[in-house]
Design brief:
Blueprint (H helix, E strand, L loop, with lengths): L5 H49 L1 E3 L7 E3 L15 E7 L4 E4 L21 E7 L3 E11 L8 E9 H53 L14 H48 L3 H26 L9 E2 H12 L3 H4 L2 E5 L5 E2 L3 H18 L3 E9 L2 E8 L9 H5 L15 H11 L3 E6 L4 E8 L5
Parallel strand pairs: 9-11
Antiparallel strand pairs: 1-2, 3-4, 3-7, 5-6, 6-7, 8-10, 11-12, 12-14, 13-14
Length: 454
């Protein structure tokens, strides 16, 4: 797939949006987890802070000082640099009580201006260049403890929270990777299903072009159906225009052929009366006119044949032979026709008649006594042979006979387009025309697709 592919563009857009969504989800989940950890940590530190506050009592050894009746239960307070610390500052006496976990360090507790017994949160520097998350309250001591105020603080190493968040992110990454892969697979399926109607249109257009179908039809999704309808309407309009063009071509043929035949007869009369030069000049002009007219008529007729057409071989042969038998060449011939009545080919009836007319007229013109027409089905093809018992054509000139405008016999009034037009007709219907010397005579063989209709 290239970047011009709609499928690739949709997949890239889906992949980009998926990656952005997963990145935002990872960031959001990490933030939520961090806040959850902080809330849990805050709740735990509040419990420790309340326990320490409840254990305050006057010192029995030093009057006016305070001490803890019992150490906090959490063993981490006893482990040096464990990350969990507590500290009490008696603001009037200046004495400091602290947990064993602080070892020989002392926390620089932030000042608290008010005695409100409210827990305040801070982030401060801790031992060994660590950052601590600290909860602190400032309380007023009762008279039995010497009076005054004290700041009581509990702190936790913030790096532990960061480590917990990183471990959560590490555990989250494989899950998000799997989700991303599933979303990309779902996007592939979605794009494939979404673009399938376009593939159907392409295949149906190919079927219309090959003649298997006449139209695309309307069984498409709502979003694609208008496109299919527009294409069908375009095909209908084009077919109607082609039919009108073919009709005009037929009218033009009937309107021009008779005057040209009369003119050719007058040219022959002039030649017989001794005006050979004038007759030759007029014959050249007339032949040019015939060639031009027949070429343009053939182009219009073969512009776009109806691919679902069907023609009866026997009916077309009978029609053409009946006409040719009335000509001077046809009257003197013996006609042998061997075509099954049910033999049919995938070709327009008028096109078949045009091709057969040229072949049978040529055969009648050059035959000595007999013209033989035979046809049979050969698998998916139909073979039709028109043979005469005339002199034939030299092998070296067979290709020249099929060339447009090629004339091996200068007798008669033809424009030299007959066999070339036959070739154009059969090739437009995916058929072939071949010429072979039959000894005696010449055999012209048409091969066409057999009709697919029962």
């Amino acid at each position: 797939m290239t970047f011009g592919s709609l499928r690739l563009r949709l997949l890239l857009a889906g992949a980009a949006s998926t990656l952005v969504a997963l990145a935002l989800a990872a960031y959001g989940l990490t933030i939520l987890f961090e806040r959850h950890v902080e809330r849990r940590l805050t709740a735990e530190l509040v419990v420790h802070l309340n326990q320490i506050t409840a254990q305050l009592e006057p010192s029995t050894n030093t009057p006016g000082e305070i001490t803890l009746a019992a150490q906090p239960a959490d063993p981490r307070f006893e482990v040096p640099l464990s990350g969990l610390y507590w500290q009490i500052i008696h603001e009037q006496k200046g004495t400091v009580l602290r947990s064993r976990s602080l070892w020989d360090s002392e926390l620089a507790l932030p000042p608290e201006p008010d005695v409100d017994d409210v827990i305040h949160q801070h982030r401060i520097a801790g031992p060994a260049d660590t950052e601590l998350y600290l909860l602190q309250r400032r309380v007023e001591l009762p008279a039995r403890m010497g009076g005054g105020t004290a700041r009581i603080a509990v702190a936790w190493d913030a790096a532990e929270t960061t480590k917990a968040v990183r471990r959560f992110a590490a555990d989250l990454t494989p899950l998000l990777t799997i989700i991303g892969a599933l979303l990309l697979a779902a996007a592939w399926v979605q794009v494939s299903i979404g673009l399938r109607p376009l593939s159907d249109i392409r295949s149906r257009l190919a079927a219309v072009r090959s003649g298997k179908n006449r139209r695309l039809g309307a069984d498409f999704p709502d979003e694609v159906r208008p496109l299919a309808q527009e294409i069908d309407e375009l095909i209908d309009a084009r077919d109607a225009e082609l039919q009108r063009a073919r009709a005009r071509a037929g009218d033009l043929a009937h309107g021009l052929r008779t005057p040209l035949q009369v003119l050719q007869a007058e040219i022959e009369r002039l030649a017989k009366d001794g005006h050979a030069t004038v007759a030759l000049n007029l014959s050249t002009v007339t032949r040019t006119m015939q060639r031009t007219v027949e070429r343009e008529l053939a182009r219009v007729r073969l512009a776009s044949p109806q691919r679902d057409s069907e023609a009866s071989i026997a009916a077309a042969v009978e029609q053409v032979v009946r006409v040719v038998q009335r000509t001077p060449d046809g009257e003197r011939m013996d006609w042998i026709v061997d075509v099954p009545p049910d033999l049919a080919a995938a070709i327009d009836h008028d096109d078949l008649s045009e091709a057969l007319g040229n072949l049978i007229e040529n055969a009648a013109r050059h035959a000595r006594h007999t013209v033989t027409i035979s046809g049979y089905r050969n698998g998916p093809a139909v073979t039709l042979k028109v043979a005469d018992d005339g002199p034939g054509i030299p092998e070296d000139n067979l290709a020249e006979a099929l060339r447009r405008g090629g004339r091996l016999d200068e007798r008669g009034s033809g424009a030299g387009l007959g066999l070339a037009i036959v070739t154009d007709i059969v090739e437009s219907w995916s058929g072939t025309l071949s010429l072979d010397n039959a000894n005696p005579g010449l055999a012209a063989t048409l091969t066409l697709k057999a009709s697919s209709r029962p």
